[in-house]
Amino acid sequence: MKVSLAKRVSALTPSTTLAITAKAKEMKALGIDVIGLGAGEPDFNTPKHIIQAAYDSLIEGHTKYTPSGGTPQLKEAVISKFKQDQNLTYKPSEIIVTSGAKHALYTLFQVLLDDGDEVIIPTPYWVSYPEQVKLAGGNPVIVEGKQENSYKITPEQLSQSITERTKAVIINSPSNPTGMIYSDEELKAIGQICLERNILIVSDEIYEKLVYDGNTHTSIAEISEELKNQTIIINGVSKSHSMTGWRIGYAAGNETVIKAMTNLASHSTSNPTTTSQYGAVAAYTGDQQPVENMRKSFEERLNIVFEKLNNIPGFDCIKPQGAFYLFPNVKEAARLTGYESVDIFVQALLEEAKVAVIPGSGFGSEDNIRLSYATSLESMEQAIERIHEFVVKKSQ
Fold it and tell me: Please, one GO biological process term (predicted)?
């Protein structure tokens, strides 16, 4: 049987993250000592009180469908979280709980975009942003966040990128892959342009709890009531509470948009997993000390390995302010070692140094690589030592 696939699927770009991860796993299965630094999830287990709450919900018989937009209890927990953390006030009708933050973004673009509508996406970007926009019939408009501006776009760049088809701009702070945070002043300036040009702000705040060295996270929705009304916040418990596999995210914002997202979800996922929702309630209403303990561990690792990474010949890294990634520019290291591109350099690191990192090309930044420090300090230090030795040897 010959099957013809839909054009929208054929146009998707394969995930470089998954490709490298699959290759590393294949090598490990053959007994090769590969150190993987591609992880996009915390290396801590979900806190015990969350697991217990989920278990209790099963024993109590909470195993049936829930409302498509999430249980009332979880919506209230999310609302309380917003009020406590950011002094933002939302109604239940302005919240949708989804099967992960990725699903929240996907559903948002599906209800927001018509064919040809444009979404401004700063680089470096999380790999799924452009693909999700394309799946909704939209056009990703890529704007370079330059290294000299800490990989963030300027208000001038945003203004120059807006056309009559621009529907939204994505702000990811702290950023995956760079770990950079937009300052209050930067957010105000970007927000003012969006208000003047009636551009929706999609604020991806999934790493908000993971900030270091005295840095703080501000949501653009906190700055003014006008900007709150112009913003859809995307968040979830995956990174903050080490619940990546539980698949609970949410969106908060304009009631009309949230209603449309809920209607769409009712025809796709029916509802987020019931047990996971009970766990997420415990995540937000229970003990937050495990969240802080995890944040401190990441901060400690960052402060130990950052300088070691920057001491590798040809590596140029800005110290991240949040998330759990390092995103060095390694164009010079690739040149020193005789490789034509960073992608080929990454492949050589895996095959010869036995270290798996993610090429920056998957994030729209061909001169960089992404390394995750959501792994043990011992593994991280050993991996950096291997990379250092590889570069020095190849440069001779």
Answer: amino acid metabolic process
Q: Residue 234's beta-bridge partner residues?
A: 204, 251
Main-chain dihedrals φ then ψ at residue 323, nearest 5 degrees: 60, -150
Q: Would you say 252 and 233 are in contact if contact means Cβ atoms under 8 Å apart?
A: yes
pTM over cut 0.90: yes
The pLDDT tens digits of the residues spanning 97-141 come to 999 999 999 999 999 999 999 999 999 999 999 999 999 999 999
> Nearest Cα to 378, choosing from 121, 136, 84, 35?
35
Return the CATH fold of 48-287.
Aspartate Aminotransferase; domain 2 (3.40.640)
End-to-end Cα distance, the chain = 55
Give 272's strand partners: none
CATH topology of domain 7-45+289-395: Aspartate Aminotransferase, domain 1 (3.90.1150)
The string of pLDDT tens digits covering residues 210-231 is 999 999 999 999 999 999 999 9
For residue 107, what are the contacts with CB-CB under 8 A and spacing of at least 6? Answer: 96, 98, 251, 261, 264, 265, 268
